[in-house]
From TrEMBL:
Compositionally biased spans, kind Acidic residues: 101-114
Region (Disordered): 88-124
Identification of the protein by name: Preprotein translocase subunit YajC
Sequence similarity: Belongs to the YajC family.
Organism lineage string: Bacteria, Bacillati, Bacillota, Bacilli, Lactobacillales
Transmembrane annotation, as ranges: 6-23
Record bears the keyword Transmembrane: yes
Primary subcellular site in the record, as a coarse category: membrane
Length: 124
């Protein structure tokens, strides 16, 4: 009788460590990902939509997804994967799709640098 109870306890413990515990870890990781998502992050939704997060509304648990200029509103739980984290160094070009303006003096100095590099390689 005691052997049967011991087998049952071992079986339940094995089920916990094989099935339940890894699932709980995965849920915590997903919840942390959703809680830390910020505007500018590139995500994939559960429906397969790829885009950049334009805004996050924590109170309503929604986010605005910019998919090539089309803004769509999704629940935060619709995020399947964060492809690229948002960071402070997100450029205007990445968000708007437009190239930033370059001063003529900066462009000239870049051209001069390339010319001098080419001349040095020719001399060798």
């Amino acid at each position: 009788m005691n052997a049967n109870i011991l087998i049952l306890v071992v079986f339940i413990a094995a089920m916990y460590f094989i099935m339940i515990r890894p699932q709980q870890k995965q849920q915590k990781k997903r919840q942390a990902m959703i809680n830390n998502v910020q505007a500018g992050a590139e995500v994939i939704t559960i429906g397969g939509m790829h885009g950049t997060i334009a805004a996050v509304n924590k109170e309503a648990h929604t986010f605005d997804l910019d998919a090539e200029g089309v803004i769509l509103v999704f629940e935060l739980s619709a995020i399947r994967q964060v492809v690229k984290e948002a960071n402070a160094s997100v450029t205007t070009e990445e968000l708007t799709g437009e190239a930033p303006e370059v001063n003529e003096s900066e462009a000239d100095s870049d051209d001069n640098q390339e010319t001098t590099d080419a001349q040095k390689s020719e001399e060798k």
